[in-house]
Amino acid sequence: MRVIAVIITFHPELTALQKMICSLKKQHINAVVVDNSPNQVLLDLPIPKDNIIYNSQNLGIAKAQNLGIENALNQGADFICFFDQDSKIPENFYSDMIYGKDPQVNSVFCPVVIDEKTGQELPNFKLSKFGLGQKSYSRGLESNLSVDLAISSGSVATANVFKIAGLMDDKLFIDLVDFEWCFRCIKYSIPIICIPTVELLHSIGDGKSKVPLGGSIHSPFRTYYKNRNPFYLLSKSHIPFLYSFKLILSSNIQLFLSVVFGKNKWQHFISGCKGIHDGLTFLIKKQKG
After folding, report:
1. Nearest to 6 by CA among 59, 62, 82, 71
2. pLDDT of residue 203 exceeding 90
3. Where do the H-state alpha helices sit in 166-208?
C-alpha cells in the first residue's frame, strides 16, 4: 500500500521540514514537496529530487496541491494526505488514519486539528438542512464522527476520490479551497470522517490577530481572497446558496473590523473592495454565460 503526503511550502524553515519528512518516513509515508517560494532551493531534503516541485512563484495553495496530487497519482499512490510546512505529525497518524483502511473505498479522513498557539480545537462543520455550517468538535470522542467540511491539513483521501470529485479549484487560490472540494465530495456521496484519536498540531500563520469584538484579522493579501471567493462559491450549483451568502456577509463584517482595528487599515480597505468588485464581476459574467 503506497501512501504519499503532499506538503505545500512557502519560505519554509528547512530544519522543521526535514524533521517532518523524517517523521512521515518512519510511518511508511513518502513525501512530495511543492514549493511556492520565489527563488527557493530546498537543500538536503531526504526525498528523491523528483518529489520536489519548484514553482518559483506563489501559485496558491490549490494549484500547488493539484501538482502534488498529480505527482502522487503518477507514482501509484493508494492514499494521499496533505500537510502544511509547520504541521506536527503525531506518532499514531498512520496507524489510526490509514492502517486497515480499504484503498478501494472512496473516503476522506481527517484528524482533530489543534491550534498550536491556543491549544484549542479547530472545528470541522456539519451542514444544516438549510445548508448552513454548524461547528463540529471531535476531541475526546471515543468513536469516529462523520462531518461535511474539514480543513485540508492532515486530511487523507483514497486516490480514486480525486478521479470522482476532481482536483482543487485553483481559481480560489487560497481561501475556501478545501471547503469547496468537500462540497464536491458531498455531491458525489463521498464520506468525510473525523478520527478523534489523532490530534494534529497546526499553526495558523499569515499574521493572524484577534480583534476586540471577536474574529480575526489576516494580512491584506488574504483580505482580498476572503472577500472575493464567497462570490465564486455563490456561482457553484453544488454549494448551498445560504452558505455562500452567509460567507459574503461575514467577510464584509470582517473587512469592517480589519479597517477599524487592523494595522494596515487602508491596505485592508483597498484589498477588500477589490475582492468584492472582482467577485461581483465574476458572478455577473458567470450568470450571463
Report:
1. 82
2. no
3. 177-187
Exposure on the CB side of residue 106, measured as CA atoms within 13 A: 14
Write down the residue that cell numbers 510546512 correspond to. Answer: 85
What pLDDT sits at residue 210? 63
> Which residues pair with residue 54 across a beta bridge?
35
pLDDT digits (tens, 9 = 90+) for 31-82: 999 999 998 778 789 999 999 999 999 999 999 999 999 999 999 999 999 9
The three three-digit cell numbers of residue 181, written as one number: 472540494
| Coil vs helix vs strand at 188 | coil
Percent helix, strand, coil in the chain, to 5, is 40, 20, 40
CATH class, domain 3-202, is alpha beta
Asked if the model's pLDDT at residue 207 lies above 70, the reply is no
Please tell me the number of Cα atoms within 13 Å of 36 on its side-chain side: 20
Cα separation, 201 vs 86, whole angstroms:
9
Residues of the chain with CATH 3.90.550.10: 3-202
| Whole-prediction pTM | 0.95
Contact 91, 170 (CB under 8 A): no
C-alpha cell of residue 163? 478521479
Residues 73 and 79: their CA atoms lie apart, in Å, by: 9
Helix (H) or strand (E) holding 114: strand 108-115
Q: Indicate the average pLDDT of the chain.
A: 94
